[in-house]
């Protein structure tokens, strides 16, 4: 009489393959979650940096040379914005670097040039 079914070794190999596939799936889903969070952070940081630069553009005066720290809240999250204003070879323009931090972690840096008029 011939027995039908799987041997213990075949079952163990199948379980090992399934465990490997599940662990890879968990790693991939974790990476997707991290990437989604990073995209959200960059979008909110972009809004903070754009708002800070637009405030300078709307000001009737040329911005002064130096560094300024600003606080920005987007989506109930607090960001720090470091504005660095530097001279350019043309005195009618200023270079503006806006760097956004989430605590101590830098998220985004935007560079722009502001004109006198």
Explain the overall architecture.
This protein has 1 helix and 4 strands. The termini are far apart. 44% of the residues lie in helices and 35% in strands. The protein has a single domain, classed as GSPII I/J protein-like (Pantoate--beta-alanine Ligase, Chain: A,domain 2), CATH 3.30.1300.30. The longest helix is centred in the N-terminal third of the chain and has 51 residues. Strands 1-2-3-4 form a 4-stranded antiparallel β-sheet, covered by helices on one side. The protein is α+β, with helices and mostly antiparallel strands. The mean pLDDT is 92.
In short:
The chain is an alpha+beta fold and 117 residues long. It contains 1 helix and 4 strands.
Topology, element by element:
Blueprint: H1 8-58, E1 66-74, E2 77-87, E3 93-102, E4 105-115
Give the tags:
117 residues, rod-shaped, four-stranded antiparallel β-sheet, alpha+beta, 44% helix, Pantoate--beta-alanine Ligase, Chain: A,domain 2
Per DSSP, the total helix count is: 1
Instruction: Write the CATH fold name.
Output: Pantoate--beta-alanine Ligase, Chain: A,domain 2
Architecture, CATH level 2?
Answer: 2-Layer Sandwich
Which secondary-structure class do the elements indicate?
Answer: alpha+beta
Global shape? rod-shaped
Task: Write down how many β-strands occur, each being a DSSP E stretch of 2 or more residues.
Answer: 4
Helix content: 40-55%
Tell me about the biggest sheet? 4 strands, antiparallel
The CATH class assignment is Alpha Beta
Q: β content, as a range?
A: 35-45%
Low-confidence parts: none
CATH superfamily: GSPII I/J protein-like
Oligomer: single chain
Overall pLDDT metric: 92
Distance from first to last alpha carbon: 97 Å
Compressed to H and E, one letter per element, the order equals: HEEEE
Number of domains: 1
Strands ordered across the widest β-sheet:
1-2-3-4
Radius of gyration: 27 Å
């Amino acid at each position: 009489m011939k027995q039908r079914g799987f041997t213990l070794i075949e079952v163990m190999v199948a379980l090992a393959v399934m465990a490997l596939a599940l662990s890879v799936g968990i790693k991939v889903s974790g990476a997707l979650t991290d990437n989604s969070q990073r995209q959200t952070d960059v979008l909110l940081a972009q809004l903070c940096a754009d708002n800070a630069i637009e405030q300078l553009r709307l000001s009737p005066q040329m911005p002064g040379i130096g560094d300024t720290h600003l606080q920005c809240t987007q989506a109930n999250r607090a960001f720090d914005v470091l504005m660095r204003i530097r001279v350019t070879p043309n005195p009618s323009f200023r270079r503006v670097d806006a760097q956004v931090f989430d605590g101590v972690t830098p998220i985004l840096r935007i560079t722009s040039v502001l004109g006198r008029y």
